[in-house]
Write a structure and sequence with these properties.
The structure holds two protein chains of two kinds.
Chain A (H helix, E strand, L loop, with lengths): L1 E5 L2 E2 L2 E2 L1 H13 L4 E7 L3 H5 L9 E5 L9 H15 L3 E5 L4 H12 L3 E5 L1 E5 L2 E8 L4 E7 L4 E5 L17 E3 L11 E8 L12 E5 L9 H11 L2 E4 L1 H5 L20 E5 L5 H4 L7 E6 L6 H4 L2 E4 L2 H15 L1
Parallel strand pairs in A: 1-4, 1-6, 4-5, 5-12, 6-11, 7-11, 14-15, 14-16, 16-17, 17-18
Antiparallel strand pairs in A: 2-3, 8-9, 9-10
Helix pairs in contact in A: 3-4, 5-9
Chain B lengths: L1 E5 L2 E3 L21 E3 L1 H17 L2 E7 L5 H10 L3 E6 L7 H13 L5 E5 L10 H9 L3 E11 L2 E8 L2 E8 L3 E4 L11 H9 L2 E5 L7 E7 L9 E4 L4 H11 L4
Parallel strand pairs in B: 1-4, 1-6, 4-5, 5-11, 6-10, 7-10
Antiparallel strand pairs in B: 2-3, 7-8, 8-9
The chains are: A alpha/beta, B alpha/beta.
Bound molecules: flavin-adenine dinucleotide (FAD) and adenosine monophosphate.
């Protein structure tokens, strides 16, 4: 089977989820062909960084109008590559870019998109996927009757392989033209997160706080714990709605879905809408003073206690371990 | 300004969702259905724009007779009109839904189309952007702030690496994320008025289904409940468990 993966990068940095999509593309193309596409400023140069992940070839598209991501511009570029390469499947990471781009691409090509999938396979010659629905209360196995089958892969649901430095596929430039009039919605400004901040959906460890933290200032305790662990800080909706954390930090049904290897819930009761965002974590720890809190029913390890005592003690114990 | 808002009815987020005997659909008879939470932000934004600039807010939904309940909720919040788009398709395929909406919208005047970021039943977040492409319009997804000028809009969206400010010409499709505003509750008067407002109806083909459901299943249940102890005294046991047993630190 012929698989095409769009590998998302911004300013030369590939997202982890893009690497995961490449590796899943390699697996899905067994015996066939994997083409990886890189779009944006300096695409040709950075594309080399993906060689080790096993593509048969890499195509780069660099154009002054594609320096910044735009839904329309990138969809047109991918549309052109797909019409020329004729893949059986197209994958991209289910990030804010991928989930914005794939539906426009699907509608352009007249094929459906299997969104935010956690497993991929072939059902005869149809691309088939497993994806969570009802905020993870169920999984559905579906197949696309469209050609190509398009899917966005949920970050951290697919393993990333160790790159093989000896694998050196050809990297080439894909000729593509676009004019300013083709793009009606464009990014006029970007603001970056603080340098070194770990992004919630990519983090291996997430430390989250809820109403039990009682104030904005008290989140310092979680930040200290997070720094010790190299973790990102999340929050329940109660903490966000109280104004203690930004909306971007909210974990749950109306926030972000995270799947870290370790999730530490501090002063969070475990409402079903919160669980929707974190039950796919590998190991869950709960720290809560109420032994009846529902979070304990799904936590692998729990401590019944006051966050203001337990969290600093945990931070100290972890520091001592290093 | 003519604003269209696409809304969907979804099971209440508290509901327990059970798989039906065919293993492909859910048992919907015992579920309580509500307006999709993200659509509340879309309606609220439309109402605020109308209050500031004049115009009309029209709601649309594609779905069964039952789905009209979400239109009533939106009318009660203050929308002017509502249109029920009747079409025969499997709700798995966002493209089919988008096609039905596009069909219905072609005949309606619109300066702006607002949608929710995602419907919290099948969690696809695709209908609005597909709709935009089918209508030949630009789109901005997951806006947390929106400013409308004459013929253009500026939206703020949060991405993994920070914030993007996106400028778009109008008409455009914009999807609402939590944080955009604080949705109002329908007033008693609003609810009474909504009962009197008529809901229009159009039939749309929507096109064929291109997504096949193979089966539904439940996730592996988590077996939690291992309480290591109370207070600070339990911290060493936790560190040991995470390091030696779970091997995650
Ligand atoms: C449509 C909809 C969508 C929603 N989406 C989300 C979502 O995306 N994410 C989300 O999180 N919620 C969401 N919610 C809200 C959800 O229902 C809960 O209200 C929310 O998760 C509660 O947050 P919490 O656990 O921080 O607060 P609470 O439920 O108030 O729990 C606080 C916990 O802290 C404990 N505590 C208090 N003091 C201490 C202390 N000193 N030490 C230790 N423990 C302490 C208490 O025992 C309690 O268990 C949504 C709700 C709806 C209706
Ligand atoms: N059946 C429908 N009728 C009207 N609007 C819909 C329908 N399905 C989805 N939408 C709109 O598209 C948004 C995203 O839904 P989805 O793509 O299904 O996650 C929703 O919040 C609605 O605004």
């Amino acid at each position: 089977m012929k698989v095409l993966v769009f590998a998302e990068q911004r300013e030369g940095e590939f997202r982890k989820a893009a690497i995961e999509a490449c590796c899943e593309g390699r697996r899905l193309s067994t015996g066939g062909d994997l083409t990886v596409v890189v779009i944006g400023k300096g695409a040709y140069g950075v594309a080399r960084n993906l060689c080790g992940f096993g593509p048969d070839k890499i195509l780069s598209i660099d154009h002054p109008l594609l320096e910044q991501y735009s839904t329309e511009g990138y969809a047109m570029a991918l549309d052109a590559v797909i019409r020329s390469e004729k893949p059986d499947a197209v994958l991209m990471a289910g990030t804010s870019m991928g989930r914005d781009l794939a539906p426009r691409l699907g509608a352009r090509l007249g094929v459906p998109v299997l969104a935010d999938v956690v497993q991929l396979s072939w059902q005869d010659t149809k691309l088939s996927a497993v994806r969570p629905i009802y905020s993870g209360k169920l999984f559905t196995k579906i197949a696309s009757l469209g050609r190509p089958g398009i899917a966005t892969t949920r970050p951290k649901a697919f393993p990333a392989a160790v790159p093989d430095p000896t694998h050196q596929p050809p990297v080439s430039v894909f000729p593509f033209e676009i004019s300013a009039g083709d793009i009606h919605a464009r990014v006029s400004q970007t603001q970056s997160e603080a340098e070194g901040a770990i992004e919630l959906t990519e983090a291996d460890i997430v430390v989250s706080g809820g109403r039990g933290l009682k104030s904005n200032e008290n989140f310092v305790l979680l930040e200290q714990l997070a720094r010790t662990l190299g973790a990102a800080v999340g929050a329940s909706r109660a903490a966000v709605d109280a104004g203690w954390r930004g909306h971007g930090d909210q974990v749950g049904q109306t926030g972000k879905v995270v799947s870290p290897t370790l999730y530490i819930a501090c002063g969070i009761s475990g409402a079903i809408q919160h669980l929707a965002g974190m039950t796919s974590s590998k190991v869950i720890v709960a720290i809560n003073k109420d032994p009846e809190a529902p979070i304990f029913k799904i936590a692998d390890y729990g401590i019944v206690g006051d966050v203001f005592e337990v969290v600093p003690a945990l931070t100290e114990a972890l520091k001592a371990m290093k | 300004m003519n604003i269209l808002v696409c809304v969907k009815q979804v099971p209440d987020t508290e509901s327990t969702v059970r798989i039906a005997a065919d293993c492909k659909t859910i048992q919907s008879q015992d579920l309580n259905f509500v307006l999709n939470p993200y659509d509340e932000y879309a309606i609220e934004e439309a109402l605020r724009l109308k209050e500031a600039r004049g115009g009309e807010v029209t709601l649309l939904t594609v779905g069964s007779e039952e789905a009209k309940k979400s239109l009533r909720t939106g009318l009660a919040m203050g929308a002017d009109k509502a249109l029920h788009v009747v079409c025969n398709h499997n709700h798995q395929d966002s493209l089919a839904t988008a096609r039905a909406l596009a069909d219905a919208i072609k005949g309606l005047p619109h300066d702006l189309i607002l949608c929710g970021k995602q419907a919290v039943d099948d969690d696809q977040a695709q209908v609005p952007i597909m709709l935009a492409e089918l209508l030949g319009l630009p789109s901005v997804s997951a806006a947390v702030k929106l400013e409308i000028k004459d013929g253009s809009a500026t939206a703020r969206r949060e991405i993994e690496t920070g914030v993007e400010i996106v400028e778009t010409s109008l008409p455009a499709v914009i999807t609402a994320h939590k944080g955009l505003n604080e949705p109002r509750y329908p007033s008693l008067k609003g609810i009474m008025m909504a009962k009197k407002k008529e809901i229009g109806e159009v039939n749309c083909a929507g096109g064929t289904d291109q997504v096949e459901t193979i089966e539904l299943c439940y996730p592996q249940p988590r077996v939690g409940g291992k309480i290591l102890g109370e207070g600070v005294a339990a911290v060493p046991a936790l560190v040991k468990a995470l390091h030696e047993e779970a091997k995650v630190i």
